[in-house]
Amino acid sequence: MNLTLDLIISHAHYWVSILLMMIGFFAVITQTNLVKKMVGLIIFQTSVLLLYISLGKINGAQAPIITDEHILYTNPLPHVLMLTAIVVGVSVLAVGLAIIVRIKESYGTIEEHDIVEQMDE
User: Fold this and answer.
1) For a Cys staple, 74 with which of 1, 42, 50, 61, CB 3.0–4.6 Å?
2) Per-residue pLDDT tens for 77-89?
3) CA distances from 82 to 25, 47, 57, 60, 70 (A)
């Protein structure tokens, strides 16, 4: 029992990432409001970013700065890649919100079922 609890606690970053991923995915597939779908998408993306950043962390390691001492370095590649992913995510959010604004101007609503009804008419 104690071993199981230790295993769960030591992998807490996986559980938090999976929980956030499921919350974001649930919001994307269940919400009919387009803005709420975008929020779910951003939560999903954030969970993926947290997962990769936590994988790049090494306990006891330091930032890769050259010194005379022999020390353990953290790999900066996951952090750099996630910085790029954050920029791409913000761009996707901006484009998505711009498309939602155009949909609102065209159909007068951002509710998915109302838009589908108007398209069928």
Assistant:
1) 61
2) 888 899 999 999 9
3) 20, 11, 13, 21, 27
Could you tell me where the DSSP H helices lie in 1-121? 2-10, 12-30, 34-56, 77-107, 112-120
Q: Look at the chain and count its residues.
A: 121
Contact 40, 24 (CB under 8 A): yes
Distances (CA, A) of 28 to 3, 36, 81, 105, 117: 36, 8, 25, 22, 20
Asked if pLDDT for residue 28 goes beyond 70, the answer is yes
Instruction: Measure the CA–CA gap between 94 and 71, rounded to whole angstroms.
Output: 42
Please state the pTM of the whole predicted model: 0.81
What are the backbone angles phi and psi of residue 60, rounded to the nearest 5°?
85, -5
